[in-house]
TrEMBL record:
It comes from the Bacteria. It comes from Kineobactrum salinum. Gene3D superfamilies: alpha/beta hydrolase (3.40.50.1820). InterPro entries: AB_hydrolase_1, AB_hydrolase_fold, Carboxylesterase_BioH. Pfam families: Abhydrolase_1. This is Alpha/beta hydrolase. GO terms for molecular function: hydrolase activity. Residues 1-24 form the signal peptide. Residues 58-207 form the AB hydrolase-1 domain. Keywords: Hydrolase, Signal.
Length: 356
């Protein structure tokens, strides 16, 4: 990405999310790009309060398989920005887009037909992107270790990175993520549309393609089904839902060229998730030596109790292991209303990352 294009994208994103005031101080945001491997440019956002504590560990937030960083973690509405909440707790917070997502470099194959290439951006590629961003943060903040928080697929990406670079991570939060311990998953496992019916146990590359198009309406099916009341606004603020969809679409400058408008997401994360859902393990938690917080929600459709239990068993060298199940909460608890689990989630994370 050229310098001029980077500047234009950064300005566009900053217009989406101006500086805001929250209890405790003014929240400031700075958008920038970090060089990854082979000319890849990685978008990151720094979020900090003017009350940031100098000795508080920096935190890097990792998005999941579909919606990129800003849309996942920094929406311009009340209770829509996990990044601002963590910044208000004293941390300098960073949000990144992995390659192929949001404002980071997209593989050229994402401009080709979806059926011309295998699923793009699998976990080893994302781990390299995380490595580049972590090194940038360590130098910028003058620290040896940082904290990682990964949501869903972001959790296994973060764990994978921490297993390869244990000396870089002080705290690891894995939130509603697959890991292993079961070969059954009703949504994305055996018998689902992700399995090749002609070759059981293999990912259905032909049906899924190299990347996917995601309309705004596709963001809410699983969320709505996991809310156990007819009036979804009782659980999820409509302003948060609107901002989530708007930011997701705004993350792709080609979204408006399709009807309905849709943003692109690589399919490599889905392939990795299918294999974890059918009993494979992609990384080894025994290599992690940081403090680890495993968070699950009772109404999650993605991770399983076996993922949390097996992960905890494998964390034999972690300095501390905490495992929390938030009752009645959905997969999207950090975007739900405070009384529907969001306050509990933020309290668990801030207390944990604030521990020594």
């Amino acid at each position: 990405m050229s310098g001029a294009m980077q500047a234009a994208v950064a300005l566009f994103v900053m217009l989406l999310m101006p500086a805001t005031t929250v209890s405790g101080g003014n929240i400031e945001r700075e958008d920038m790009f970090v060089d990854g491997e082979h000319g890849i440019s990685l978008f990151i956002r720094e979020v900090r309060a003017d009350t940031a504590e100098g000795d508080a560990v920096p935190i890097l937030l990792l998005h999941g398989a579909r919606v990129p960083g800003v849309a996942s973690f920094d929406l311009p509405v009340p209770n829509g920005s996990l990044a601002a909440d963590l910044a208000n707790a004293g941390h300098v917070v960073y949000i990144m887009d992995a390659r192929g997502y949001g404002f980071s470099t997209r593989p050229p194959e994402m401009s080709e037909a979806r059926d011309e290439n295998p699923p793009l951006v699998r976990s080893p590629a994302v781990v390299k992107d995380i490595a580049a961003v972590v090194e940038f943060i360590r130098k910028r903040q003058s620290v040896e270790r940082i904290a990682l928080l990964g949501w869903a697929t972001g959790g296994h990406w973060g764990g994978y990175y921490a297993s390869l670079h244990p000396d870089r991570i002080s705290h690891l939060v894995i939130y509603n993520s697959l890991y292993g311990g079961s070969d059954e998953h009703s949504l994305i496992g055996h018998g689902s549309g992700l399995e090749d019916s002609d070759r059981p146990g293999r990912f259905n590359t032909a049906a899924v393609g190299a990347y996917r198009f995601n309309a705004a309406s596709s963001l809410f099916g699983s969320w709505d089904r996991s809310i156990p009341v007819e009036d979804k606004s009782a659980w999820r603020d409509p302003a948060v839902a609107d901002a989530y969809a708007e930011a997701a679409l705004a993350s792709d400058d080609t979204a408006g060229t399709r009807e309905p408008p849709s943003f692109r997401a690589p399919s490599g994360a889905l392939e990795d998730s299918f294999y974890m859902a059918t009993g494979r393990q992609l990384w080894d938690a025994s290599l992690v030596d940081s403090r680890v917080l495993i968070i699950g929600t009772e109404r999650d459709f993605w991770s399983r109790s076996a993922d949390r239990e097996t992960l905890a068993q494998h964390l034999v060298h972690a300095k501390e292991i905490r495992s929390v199940l938030i009752p009645e909460a959905t997969h999207y608890v950090h975007l739900d209303r405070p009384e529907r689990g969001r306050d509990r989630f933020i309290g668990e994370v801030t207390e944990f990352i604030g521990s020594e």
